[in-house]
Design a protein that fits this description.
By secondary structure, the protein is α+β, with helices and mostly antiparallel strands. The chain has 4 helices and 8 strands. The strands form 3 sheets. The protein has a 4-stranded antiparallel sheet. The termini are far apart.
């Protein structure tokens, strides 16, 4: 299986959104079948930043506000979500310095949906 390190790239992040109802459900998925669903082995020292699902759907901009360095990438992320008709979600996952390869996705029905690789300014 390909590793996270092989997709490392500065000034880019990989964004996923989903509809988990609780932090426990999301943690269980991230630490469980995420790697298999998206086809890469995560680095234990460079885990993704995740939102804390409360069970409520939030507009994408509200959901992403507060992530590390969000001011440098949030407008692009919201724009890409709008293009993909994603108006809101309950959870978000961000891998900083990762350019995900969509061809690695093994489960199109996964509870998280890969949105895009977003360039950002620190």
């Amino acid at each position: 299986m390909i590793t996270q390190e092989s997709m490392t790239e500065g000034k880019v992040l990989a964004l996923w959104v989903g509809n988990f109802g609780s932090p426990e459900d999301m943690d269980s998925y991230i630490n469980g079948s995420f790697e298999e669903d998206f086809g890469f082995r995560m680095n234990d020292r460079s885990m993704p930043e995740v939102s804390e699902p409360s069970g409520a759907s939030l507009p994408i901009k509200e959901l992403l506000t507060g992530f590390s360095f969000y001011e440098g990438w949030i407008d692009r992320a919201v724009s890409v979500c709008e293009e993909k008709k994603i108006a809101e979600a309950k959870a978000a996952v961000v891998f900083h310095h990762l350019r995900y390869r969509e061809d690695l996705c093994r489960n199109l029905q996964a509870p998280l949906q890969f949105v895009a690789n977003i360039s950002w300014n620190a």
